[in-house]
Structures are given as C-alpha cells and as structure tokens.
Amino acid sequence: MPAKVDESLCTGCGLCEEICPEVFKLDENGISRVVGDCEANIDCCQEAADSCPAGAITIE
Description:
- By secondary structure, the protein is of the alpha+beta class.
- The protein is 25% helix and 20% strand.
- It has two helices and four strands; from the N terminus they run βαββαβ.
- The chain has helices at 15-19, 42-51; strands spanning 3-5, 24-26, 32-34, 57-59.
- The strands form two sheets. Strands 1-4 form a two-stranded antiparallel ribbon. Strands 2-3 form a two-stranded antiparallel ribbon.
- β2 (24-26) and β3 form a beta hairpin.
C-alpha cells in the first residue's frame, strides 16, 4: 500500500508529518514527501491521509 502525495495540492501544513512521522516529512520547500513504509505504518498513514486538509495524500 504505497502512499503518494500530490505536490500540486500539498499546502505544507505539516499535519501528515505530525500524525505519521515514520512515513511523511516536509522537504526544504515545505512539501510533504513519503520517506517511509506506509504498509508497515498503515494506521497512522491512513489517519494522515484522512486528515490532510488539502486531500493531497492517497493510499493505493
């Protein structure tokens, strides 16, 4: 179950990183990046996707 961040939608609020730092980190431009294994952290990964105010995170 890979996670993806739509860079064009990401507002850089950091909520995903706060909820699931094992999977998401903001880069130097303030855009969220997937840096970890979503499948190994599926609960927090799904919570981050569900909580994203911009709807930028999808889990396949």
